[in-house]
Structure formats: structure tokens, C-alpha cells
């Protein structure tokens, strides 16, 4: 099924570049463009959007507020936030707002197409570079007590769960983990669900942070 994408960025050149990139995929159709978050929310409410590529810094309504508004709509589309390293402080806020993935604006075209496909299929997507930056920000000032707590939480994992958690922390997709660890994607998803419970995590970044704090990344 064709994935219907809405491009949201206040820079017309960025939107044109993204449209050109996505136009080369037979599985993706750009169904609209928005120059700010308010326009994006309005377009999503009109229906027919499966995924929004969302800039963060925009006039009228920024990408954080727009993401929260879009994810609050009935049967909301997925949202992938486009970011740059100087906007990292917004990434955690975007996660809280319900974003399903993050991409750097200089991500190679093929990786953008792959990320869209993966997120629509239900797999959260975090650029490994962004994951690394987030881990560094969160753990730079981590007190020893949090490190001890992380070690205690990781100790309750099975060997297989620990292997999956390390792979998640390195930014591997479910499919990549399945191949590397010789298991089905369904089994990988089951392990990740157990990881969320045992590590008290709600997303893959928190799993990565726990593994980093425990000294396993």
C-alpha cells in the first residue's frame, strides 16, 4: 500500500528536496506540504495522511506542539521529526509529544525512505547518531546511584534479552537484530516488550540509556 506523506518545514527548498527524494520511491506519495505546524495539523485533520515529516523550529506553531496535536487526533498518522545537532534539546520533548522517529536533515535519501517504511510498519526509528547524542546528554551528569540502579535492572535480564538490549542501544532495527541474533522479527518484538517492562522503559532510547548507564555500551 502506498504511504501518504505530508512534508512540514518552513523552508521551501527543504520541502522541495524531500519531495524529490520521496518521489523516487514507488511506495511513497507526497500528498501535501505545510510551512508550519498549524498548517500541518489542519492538513492532517482533513485526512489521508499516513506519516508526517516534521521540522522542529517553525513559525506560528513549532514541531513539538504540532506533533502533540497530531498525535492527539483520532487514528493519528505517524510523525518523524527532522532535526539537526543544534536542536538536540528538543528531541526529548518531541519524544514526550509522541514522535515515532527522528532523522537528521543530512540523512542519505535511501535511509529516509527506509525510515518512513519502518515507522509506518510500527517500528520506532531513531538515527544512531541522535541516539548517541541523547545518551551522552543524559548520562554526562548521571550520579553513581543511577549507575547502580541501572546495573541492578540489567541484572534481571536473560542473556538473550541483554543481547537484544545492546543491539537496540546500538541503533539496530528489529529486522537487523533478527538477522544478527538468528531469531524471527516477532521474537525480537517480544524480547523488546519484555525489556520495556523489566527496564521500566517506554521507548528504545530509554533502553539504550539503561544499557549505557550499566556500562554495556
What attributes does this structure have?
single chain, 217 residues, alpha/beta, Rossmann fold, Arc Repressor Mutant, subunit A, 2 domains, 6-stranded parallel β-sheet, 53% helix, DNA binding, phosphoprotein, Response regulator transcription factor, Tscrpt_reg_LuxR_C, transcription
Could you please describe the fold and organization of this structure?
Helix 3 links the parallel strand 3 (51-55) and strand 4 (78-83). The chain has 2 domains: 3-126, 3-Layer(aba) Sandwich (Rossmann fold); 135-213, Orthogonal Bundle (Arc Repressor Mutant, subunit A), CATH 1.10.10. The mean pLDDT is 85. The chain has a 6-stranded parallel beta sheet, sandwiched between helices. It has helices spanning 12-23, 37-45, 63-71, 91-97, 109-120, 128-139, 144-155, 159-169, 174-181, 185-198, 204-213, and strands at residues 3-8, 28-34, 51-55, 78-83, 101-104, 125-126. The chain is of the alpha/beta class and 217 residues long. The longest helix has 14 residues, at 185-198.
Instruction: Let me know the average pLDDT.
Output: 85
| Low-confidence region ranges | none
Estimated share of beta-strand residues = 5-15%
Report the end-to-end length measured between terminal Cα atoms. Answer: 38 Å
How would you describe the shape? Answer: globular
CATH class of the largest domain: Alpha Beta
CATH superfamily of the largest domain: Response regulator
Radius of gyration: 18 Å
- The percent of residues in helical segments reads 40-55%
Spell the H/E element sequence.
EHEHEHEHEHEHHHHHH
CATH architecture of the largest domain: 3-Layer(aba) Sandwich
CATH topology of the largest domain: Rossmann fold
Protein name: Response regulator transcription factor
Domain HTH luxR-type: 150-215
Domain Response regulatory: 4-120
Modified residues (4-aspartylphosphate): 55
Amino acid at each position: 500500500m502506498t504511504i501518504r506523506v505530508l512534508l512540514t518545514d518552513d523552508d521551501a527548498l527543504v520541502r522541495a528536496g524531500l519531495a524529490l527524494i520521496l518521489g523516487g520511491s514507488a511506495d511513497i506519495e507526497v500528498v501535501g506540504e505545510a510551512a508550519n505546524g498549524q498548517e500541518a495539523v489542519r492538513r492532517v485533520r482533513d485526512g489521508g495522511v499516513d506519516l508526517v515529516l516534521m521540522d522542529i523550529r517553525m513559525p506560528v506553531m513549532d514541531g513539538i506542539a504540532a506533533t502533540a496535536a497530531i498525535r492527539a487526533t483520532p487514528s493519528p498518522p505517524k510523525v518523524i521529526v527532522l532535526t539537526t545537532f543544534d536542536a538536540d534539546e528538543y528531541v526529548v520533548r518531541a519524544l514526550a509529544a509522541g514522535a515515532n522517529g527522528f532523522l537528521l536533515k543530512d540523512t542519505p535519501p535511501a535511509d529516509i525512505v527506509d525510515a518512513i517504511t519502518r515507522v509506518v510498519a510500527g517500528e520506532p526509528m531513531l538515527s544512531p547518531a541522535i541516539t548517541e547524542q541523547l545518551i551522552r546528554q543524559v548520562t554526562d551528569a548521571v550520579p553513581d546511584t543511577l549507575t547502580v540502579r541501572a546495573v541492578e535492572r540489567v541484572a534481571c535480564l536473560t542473556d538473550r534479552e541483554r543481547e537484544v538490549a545492546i543491539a537496540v542501544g546500538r541503533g539496530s532495527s528489529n529486522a537487523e537484530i533478527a538477522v544478527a541474533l538468528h531469531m524471527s522479527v516477532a521474537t525480537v518484538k517480544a524480547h523488546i516488550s519484555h525489556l520495556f517492562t523489566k527496564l521500566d522503559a517506554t521507548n528504545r532510547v530509554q533502553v539504550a540509556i539503561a544499557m549505557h548507564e550499566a556500562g554495556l555500551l
